From TrEMBL:
Keyword Coiled coil in record: yes
Name the record gives this protein: Dynein assembly factor 1, axonemal homolog
Chain intervals with Acidic residues compositional bias: 368-384, 446-465, 481-496
Coiled coil regions in record: 300-327
Organism: Halteria grandinella
Amino acid sequence: MTQNNNKGIGLPLGNPLQYYFFNYIIKFKFQNIQMANSSTQCSTSHNDSMDTDSSSGGRTLSLQYLKDLFKKDWKLYYRTPELNEKLYLHYKGFNRIQNLEQFTDLKCLYFEGNGVNKIEGLEENTKLMSLYLQENLIEKMESLDTLVNLRQLNLSDNLIQCIAGLGSLRSLETLQLKRNRIGKFGGISDVLGLLECPSLTCIDISDNYIEDENILTELWQKMPSIAVIYQQGNPCTKKIKNYRKTFIASLPTLKYLDDRPVFEDDRKFAEAFNRGGFDEERRERERVRKEKEDAHWKNHEAFTEMIRVAREEKRQAEEAKKAAVASGALAIEAEADTAAVQEIAPAVVQEREPAEEIAEPVSQPAQESEDDEQEPPELEQVDLENERLLQQTKQQKQQEWLESVKAASGNEPAPFIPWDDECDLPKPDEEAVKKRTEQLISQQQVEEEPIVQAEPAEEVAEVEATEEKENDQNEEHESAQEEEEEQEYTNLEELD
């Protein structure tokens, strides 16, 4: 038994779930109607000065609308129409293209999502380069003769049945005509209008009604610059055997087909399949794989050789640096020793002029100390040469002094008296001679010889300590770099 409390609706009370569901639907529809009315009122109040309904319905593109648009979107447009290069008039509900003659420098027009059924009103826009008219009601491609600079034309989602009117578009590169009615009534003849524009490189005719499988030979092979083709969604793609491989092998300029690009390997495999079927394609794949492996190992060997050469050059550079440091240290040491000897030699010559007996015991310890220090051969040769010169000078002065003594004593033998020529005494006594001799010996042992021997020894020790420190630092740096290079090479081998 059912009762009808609401006679207009006639709901059964025995099923309350249906009652609640019906109320929910009524409330949802009522809310949608309110929202639609509010949006319509807002748009109407906002565009009172812009909208003028035509007799056929829709909004008219008037000059007042354009002025108000420029005033509203002042960040996008100039108030002077001739300065604007872009116009955004999409999804406005216009039913006609008009009042665009003043935009002489217009280069891009967005007019999609309107109710236009005819291409018109663009005769003065000769600089137009991009025209977007998708999602309209256009049935025929016409009035495009003046758009000689047009490069991109989008007429998707319209009612076009035949491609025509492209003969004057010598700069057109991209044409989009997906989801139209091409091929539904005229077959392949509906697309032959593309041959009028040989500059086309990208064409989209997907989701149409083209069924003729001869489209490859009748159309695409006759277009010299074609690089991108979208024709999925047409019945002809299912009729052509081995569709993708056939197109790639037959069109050398093709770079993109339907849903993915055409790579170099894809072209090699397609051409091999076209030559000998699956067996030839399998051999071509093996050949390509081997070429890639050879190229990979060639790069790996070149990288390994580069690392080896770099390490060898580094080692040679470090050895040259060490040799340069060693030679520089020896040269500095030799120059320091020579300078010290030259500074001390005059004083030593003056104080070693007396007798030979006094000088001989002093020279022996010096020679022994030089042997103990084990100086380099160059320094030893310099010291020997200086010693020889000193001895020669000393002997010459002694001989001259003896000759003068003999001449003064009347050629009588006189005892050897080691005395200084600068002495003012008339004749020395034995005590004075003995005292002077002891004074010379002590002065030579305490002052002269340690200075001549100690200074080079200290400098040599300091240079040797510096060289040892530098060698330790170089070895530590070299070991750290070698560890880093070995780690990097290990990482590269793992990646390979």
